[in-house]
Amino acid sequence: MNKTIITVVGKDTVGIIAKVCSYLADSKINILDISQTIVSGYFNMMMIVDMAGTDKDFNTVADDLDALGKKIGVVIKCQREEIFDSMHRI
User: Fold this and answer.
1) Of 22, 47, 56, 82, which is most buried by a Cβ count within 10 Å?
2) What pLDDT sits at residue 81?
3) Residue 19 contacts by C-beta under 8 Å, 6 or more apart in sequence?
């Protein structure tokens, strides 16, 4: 498995989840776990995805999601699971 952590943060608007999930589905990236909340009008979502099925490399996916985030008015960040785990062990 090739796990990646994706976070999405910004002002809540209609369609954020749909647009992010559509990109992932079109790219053959499987969502393993997802959590989202809205606090005082701010949207926050964290996903763990498996990138083993996609032909796209990590940097392409990260760049595509960054561009999608700018288009829909949120910040989307991708981190490889091993880097995320290492950062949080300290």
Assistant:
1) 47
2) 82
3) 68, 72
